[in-house]
Q: What sequence folds into this?
């Protein structure tokens, strides 16, 4: 087993990992920037090391400083959380070269999934259904046109190094294609330093459904059901739920088996998320995330499994503590991301929380690193915390969410909490009748006049 874990992150996810370490009898080391000296992760960890100034590039992304912090404290493993260095293959490589365990997949798997063209080719090879598209990269407008005519318009031009919606351009018809191809390519070059693009059939009204997987180095590969993450704004998830209302047991078992077999086929290690678009009863692979995700608690709620504990176990070479047969999906869970942002404009609202009182009670989990008197710095993301509610079924879950939202008291910064009250009043949301575009339309249609 590992004996001391350095957490290369901040905020609620740093606390999440420190908590798992404490329960496993593993020592924890927090790292922080000068802006985070008062942060809760620094206080809760057994030890802490200051990495550098506030900008992430000088602190949370500073690989040399993090490796030094490991050497100084004798940490034998690093948990990267999400964001920052969590999907940086070079970081995983450097740690391993220093004899430090990276709590995550191999650098090769991170690299493979970071290249969306290579990832899709691998998915096809492993028997995962994908969106119809070009055979890998399209190098010029002629190739783009040939591929698009074959699959039929509309099509989407995507950046190989993209993901999260960056570097995507729709071509509705043939006459839009040249421009979509050229702009996607130059935006990809500017954003990622890589102008490789590929083409997919554009799915008009899909849902975003992702499958959680976990694999150890003893050949065990399991899935923990799905999360429906369709409610997004500008590629930022706002609310996630599990299970998805559009899957029955057979559809879930079928895609779960496909995905677990695929993970076994590539000897994947650690937890991961295989992302799909789901339309008219069919799954279409789009990407794989090789990290623990923000929304992992909804899966923990319905399975009762501690995903961070399992991450640490398998990184240390131990077996997963459960098998597929042990996994039972129980009830329904919803996560709301509470951001320090204006609930209508989504403009960040950093500042001091004069009041902070989180909801609690049966079936309510609040993952947050803030407290009354805490000042949210302007340098990082605006997540105040994640409210996760769990109940026997979706109806009860929505009632519990309403109850929990009512208990919240936050003063001093603007938050996205009012948005969830508005959602709970909406019929489509109650019926879970939504797709990936629904939330943006909802926000537009309920926006105050003059906006
Ligand atoms: C698509 C798509 C429609 N058709 N691919 C956006 C982020 C990136 N991970 C993939 N994305 C999409 N890929 C095809 N072939 C629509 C989106 C998309 C989307 C996907 C998931 C969640 C929200 C979204 C919002 C807009 C577009």
A:
């Amino acid at each position: 087993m590992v004996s001391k874990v350095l957490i290369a992150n901040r905020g609620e996810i740093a606390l999440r990992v420190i908590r798992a370490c404490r329960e496993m009898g593993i020592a924890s080391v927090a790292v922080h920037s000068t802006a985070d000296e008062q942060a809760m992760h620094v206080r809760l960890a057994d030890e802490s090391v200051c990495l550098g100034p506030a900008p992430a590039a000088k602190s949370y992304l500073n690989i040399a400083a993090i490796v030094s912090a490991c050497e100084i404290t004798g940490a034998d493993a690093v948990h990267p959380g999400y964001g920052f260095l969590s999907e940086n293959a070079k970081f995983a490589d450097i740690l391993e070269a220093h004899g430090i365990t990276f709590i995550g997949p191999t650098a090769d798997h991170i690299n493979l999934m970071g290249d969306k063209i290579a990832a899709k080719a691998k998915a096809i090879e492993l028997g995962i259904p994908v969106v119809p598209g070009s055979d890998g990269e399209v190098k010029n407008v002629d190739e783009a046109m040939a591929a698009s005519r074959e699959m039929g318009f509309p099509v989407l031009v995507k950046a190989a190094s993209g993901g999260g919606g960056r570097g995507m351009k729709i071509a509705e018809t043939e006459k839009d294609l040249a421009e979509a191809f050229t702009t996607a390519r130059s935006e990809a070059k500017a954003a990622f330093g890589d102008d490789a693009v590929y083409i997919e059939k554009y799915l008009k009204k899909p849902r975003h459904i992702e499958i959680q997987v976990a694999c150890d180095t003893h050949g065990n590969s399991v899935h923990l059901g799905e999360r429906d993450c369709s409610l997004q704004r500008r590629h930022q998830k706002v609310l996630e739920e599990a299970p998805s209302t559009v899957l029955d047991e057979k559809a879930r078992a079928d895609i779960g088996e496909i995905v677990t077999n695929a993970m076994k086929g590539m000897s994947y290690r650690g937890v991961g998320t295989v992302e799909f678009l789901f339309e008219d009863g069919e799954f279409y692979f789009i990407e794989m995330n090789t990290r623990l995700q923000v929304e992992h608690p909804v899966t923990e709620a319905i399975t009762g499994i501690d995903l961070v504990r399992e991450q640490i176990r398998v990184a240390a070479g131990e077996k997963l503590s459960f098998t597929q047969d042990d996994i039972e999906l129980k009830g329904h869970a919803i996560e709301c991301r509470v951001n320090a942002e204006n609930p209508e404009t989504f403009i960040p609202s950093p500042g001091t929380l004069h009041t902070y009182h989180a909801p609690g009670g049966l079936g309510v989990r609040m993952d947050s690193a803030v407290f009354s008197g805490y000042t949210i710095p302007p340098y990082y993301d605006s997540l105040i915390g994640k409210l996760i509610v769990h109940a026997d079924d979706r109806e009860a879950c929505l009632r519990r969410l309403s109850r929990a939202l009512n208990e919240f008291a936050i003063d001093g910064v603007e938050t996205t909490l009012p948005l969830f009250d508005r959602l709970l009043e909406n019929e489509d949301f109650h019926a879970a009748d939504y797709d990936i575009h629904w939330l943006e339309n909802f926000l537009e249609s309920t926006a105050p006049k003059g906006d």
Q: What stands out?
A: The mean pLDDT is 97. The chain has 15 helices and 20 strands.
